[in-house]
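Limitations
The structure tokens in this dataset are predictions for the assembled complex, not deposited experimental models. Users should treat interface geometry with appropriate caution, especially where small molecules or nucleic acid strands are included. An illustrative entry is reproduced here so readers can see what is and is not provided.
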Amino acid sequence: MKLTGTEIIVECLKQEKAKVLFGIPGAAIMPLYDTFGKYEEIPFKNILCRHEQGAIHAADGYARATGEVGVCIATSGPGATNLITGLANAHMDSVPLVAITGQVPTEMVGNDAFQEVDITGITLPITKHNYIARKIEELPLIIKEAFYIAKTGRPGPVLIDLPKDIQLSKCNFNYPERANRRGYNPSYKGHLKQIKSAAIKIMNARKPIIVAGGGVIKSKASAELIKIVSKTNIPVVNTFMGLSSFPKNHPLFLGMLGMYGQYTANQSVSNADLILALGTRFDDRITGNLSKFCPQAEVIHIDIDPAEIGKNIYAKIPIVGDLKNVLQQLNNYLEEKEPVEWLNEIKGFKEKDPMYKENDNFLLNSRFIMESINELFRGEAIIVTDVGQHQMWAAHYTQVNFPRHFISSGGLGAMGFGFPAAIGAKIGCPNKPVVCITGDGGFQMNIQELATAIYNRLSIIVILMNNGYLGMVRQLQELFCDKRYVSTELAGNPDFVKVVEGYGGTGYRVGKREELIPILHEAHSKNEFVLIDCHIPQEENIFPLVKPDSSINQMIGVD
Amino acid sequence: MKHTIAILVEDLPGVMARVAGLFTRRGFNINSIAVGHSETPGISRMTIIVNGDEKVLEQVMKQLNKLVDVVRVRDIPAENIIERELVLVRVHVDSLAVRSEIIQLVEIFKAKVVFVERNTMTIEMSGDEEKINGFLNLLKPFGIKEIVRTGTIAINKNSKNGLK
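Predicted assembly:
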């Protein structure tokens, strides 16, 4: 049977079991939306967002929360360019996405037509791969490949640009069973000899440490990691992207590593003699000054992307493969172990670590807010954050015990990500509580998605950490620019409660410590969209931190 | 350090942009790039000369391998390389003496005169980079009007280390 291009897309999305699409229509993608209208029942939810950036961040949050491929749709020109931040974000954090953009008709491509941009050209460096469909016959294979490439190997975003005439033309439809590209063969199985030598190194190490990155979550290897830790008693730190890959309440968990990391984590990694690095790319926010990073440690680096091994840090034992496979195999060659002396040394770091001290501040401060969230949800909620100080507070203090329960923009650090991503997470996991922790700066970068959240009756709790500043930048100005607060005070902020009410939702304003817990409980029991505007101290800082270019064991803010 | 990388790529629109863009955005320096059909229909072969240490070479190769349209990547070590470049050069000729002097050079370098005008000669020559540079240097005093070079192409002497 002959199908139109847009019918082919619907059939392909069905085959790929896509459950939700996030997008906004426009002239060049109208045929696709029109096809949705012709189906009595389209086999997926079609969520109308209010800005394409909101749509792609929502698809991203959906993908991170569910582990499935997120799908978003935009029209040509400005619709497509509005996806760029979201593509770059997903690319940096290895999130599987398929973005479909409309394009002007093939015969007009290259003529600077109305709403034409070369979106495949623009997105070359920020997609895992991209396509422009030039013949209708190619379309099924393109879609098959796009999903396959997005979700396999090191995941990432794939964009498909669809000229309008291709959407409207017809051909016989056959969905290919498999995508087969001679230039794309991710290696899943680790090299056995390397795995065996890694096991020997681990057994012989006096001060081993595991650095668990985002790859652990992506390859669903948390259970394997926990098994290895139970057997060997090797302590674990997380990279920022690795948060939620290992339960924070595990006694051998030492916190987050890096520039805004936890003191214990940074000291332990700096003093280790062996680093078992799992699915991490040793970003500069992790290593600080590269030349001073862990001088005494040997590194076993396991990653599915060979290009990440040896890119920033020399790996004594490189292992390319899928972490789940590799850890399963590695575990077979490990024996029980307890590095007692090393764990005692780490105890010493903990004594100096401000994280383990009582919260003796009586203001409505960040830590109190995070701990209140923990008390209510006990690690069951999916925490989605925006970018800035609150993100680091959330990274440190929120209780996260299960994979995919901490969602945040790591590599790109894209403000505006948190709120739409929370929408995507809630749509993907409707039975899970979703708490969006955001700031007054970042929230306003995609505030228009209030309509999407409230109209779709998504029971998300937004905790707005409102300090009237672009707080992270203000903190840097305080510390490194003699308090010259240029362009960081958010004078002119709206009354956020009224804004939410304007969209038909519920908002609360909290200014005092004792008000928060009752309101949180009330918000939770309402089971609908709620925003809690928390007025926190204006000049609260995130400590400890490592100055740019310093070594990660030299932290400001530790007595 | 100069490295020669041979790449097989899918013969698809945009593949040059993907490869060239990767070099730009990762900050790798391309000395030369040459591309043409390979022995397999649908597959093109590129030869890229890059400058950098071993670490740069390793990253270049790994990053190239990540491109979906890139089918195979190999570096060709200096001791096993056969490399050639083709140049077309147009020289100013203002006298008979000059003409015969140039023809002598052409013979010595096994080059070929491909076009002659009253005041110019167009010469074709192929060889490795060193030979070509040497030839062009000798022509310089006569007045070079135009140079067109293809960029280096290269093959491994050892057929077992070919790209197939």
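Some entries come with short summary sentences. For this one: The two ends of chain B are 26 Å apart (CA to CA).
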